[in-house]
Amino acid sequence: MKEPMPDATRRPRRLPGTSLEQRGDHVIVCDADRNVMLALNESAAALWELCDGSTTIEEMVMAICEVSSISPAQARDDVERTLAEFERARLLVAVDV
């Protein structure tokens, strides 16, 4: 089942206290307070950096399109899927404007 489509104006923000760490060949988001770790691929790590509370989901999609050869529709699907994974791990706080 596909996740519900998030509002493109939503501005996801990393949960305070989380960090992005390089461990060998792996990039990992860590929340030491809750003992949560999530391994990320290169694209997901780049998206994590955009979760700053000021970048909208639509801006994230456009940024992904600028650095890759995928279509806006594919970028939107990838962004939505990755953000849903971050949210399931409770690593984001949504900032609505």
Helix content: 25-40%
Please write the string of helix (H) and strand (E) elements. Answer: EEEEHHHE
Q: What percentage of the residues does DSSP assign to strands (E)?
A: 25-35%
Strand ordering within the main sheet: 2-3-4
Radius of gyration: 13 Å
Structural class of the secondary structure composition?
alpha+beta
Figure out the total of helices: 3
Question: What is the multimeric organization of the chains shown?
Answer: single chain
What kind of sheet is the major sheet? 3 strands, antiparallel
Poorly predicted regions: 1-5
- Our measurement of the CA-to-CA distance between the termini, rounded to an integer number of angstroms, reads 28 Å
Number of strands: 5
Mean pLDDT: 88
C-alpha geometry: globular
How would you portray this structure in words?
With 97 residues, the protein is an alpha+beta fold. It is 38% helix and 26% strand. It contains three helices and five strands; from the N terminus they run ββββαααβ. Strands 2-3-4 form a three-stranded antiparallel β-sheet. A two-stranded antiparallel ribbon has the order 1-5. Strand 2 and strand 3 form a beta hairpin. The protein is globular. The N and C termini lie far apart (28 Å). The relative contact order is 0.26. The model is unreliable at 1-5 (pLDDT under 50).
